[in-house]
């Protein structure tokens, strides 16, 4: 191990994924010298093993499904997908797992990149161990931001170490389509990857411990997605847990709590995420290694005046866009505090507080049908003590949805706060609904009165006319 000099910066950012990049962008815009530390690829999980490759895999699946519903077009797209072409296009979207372009972007904003394993080494200090063993110490005059994200969490199961299980990384970067795929889990990764591989030719079995898919959304979202997957040929088993796994002559064998013995070529565990904080030196600043980092609404870690945590590591909302939102706020906060500017106390609309994390988090699941939601579900709103009413509309009542072709199925719900006259949450399920979500996000985040939404006239004939149908149903 070779020790090099100590280098001082205003800000040091651990993790150069999209969240860390956005912190660096904002602190550089504030005129602060900034170092970015990355142990893998600049661009992080989203660019190479999550958002970008998964959506590249899903797009041809969804496009074919939509085309098949249109009279006059359906017969032209009855054949199978070209799996090799789909995987090749995915490779392009993942930049063939090279980060040159993102490195060039870091250089363009004037931040310095350090490749290697970064660890806190006491207050305002980070050591970076490069691949050749060289250790560089970076000190921060104002702030260190932890943006190291999460990794897939695998269950403790007998035989798991011998199986070579897939996680989201192996699924999104797979170079071949397995003939049989077991998917364990019922969340977003499970639903999206089941959709991909069933369409590419795998025989997919999904094992869900709970009662259905997408448990964090309205129940009808998971029901409609499960219905479509079943019709496509997938076998979805709810209330089912895996008790052991193994490989026999190359074949994965999973045993369930019901005693069923299931065989597959690969098994994907989509059973949650764990913070990448186990080996970043948290113990040197009095924090628990491997823990989620609790922050205030300026993204500063509780009990410190210099340490920030943005994105997945603070466990507020494990979504790239939400992490980038936090990063923009944290970067501006760091810049303001470094300049000695006092921040206004708890300003919900100001640029220095991450209030959307609490009540207006949007998410799209890119299955067929798509599922999109923002804010609270009906059950969440009721648990929070709000007096609410759910208003539901069948999307087939909307002319714009009917234009998508025969067999369109979808549903929309808005959760209305009856005391405040605003929306607490909105959910859409159906082909093409992902692009509706930002209008709902603006309504929820902006606490737009429901009566005022009556004057936001949707264009005819678009799917956005569902807003009119929802308001009509609410008024009765």
Automatic annotation (TrEMBL):
<feature type="domain" description="Pyridine nucleotide-disulphide oxidoreductase dimerisation">
    <location>
        <begin position="361"/>
        <end position="467"/>
    </location>
</feature>
<dbReference type="Pfam" id="PF07992">
    <property type="entry name" value="Pyr_redox_2"/>
</dbReference>
<dbReference type="InterPro" id="IPR004099">
    <property type="entry name" value="Pyr_nucl-diS_OxRdtase_dimer"/>
</dbReference>
<dbReference type="InterPro" id="IPR016156">
    <property type="entry name" value="FAD/NAD-linked_Rdtase_dimer_sf"/>
</dbReference>
<keyword id="KW-0520">NAD</keyword>
<dbReference type="InterPro" id="IPR023753">
    <property type="entry name" value="FAD/NAD-binding_dom"/>
</dbReference>
<protein>
    <submittedName>
        <fullName>NAD(P)/FAD-dependent oxidoreductase</fullName>
    </submittedName>
</protein>
<comment type="similarity">
    <text>Belongs to the class-I pyridine nucleotide-disulfide oxidoreductase family.</text>
</comment>
<dbReference type="InterPro" id="IPR036188">
    <property type="entry name" value="FAD/NAD-bd_sf"/>
</dbReference>
<dbReference type="Pfam" id="PF02852">
    <property type="entry name" value="Pyr_redox_dim"/>
</dbReference>
<keyword id="KW-0285">Flavoprotein</keyword>
<feature type="domain" description="FAD/NAD(P)-binding">
    <location>
        <begin position="9"/>
        <end position="321"/>
    </location>
</feature>
<dbReference type="InterPro" id="IPR001100">
    <property type="entry name" value="Pyr_nuc-diS_OxRdtase"/>
</dbReference>
<dbReference type="InterPro" id="IPR050151">
    <property type="entry name" value="Class-I_Pyr_Nuc-Dis_Oxidored"/>
</dbReference>
<keyword id="KW-0274">FAD</keyword>
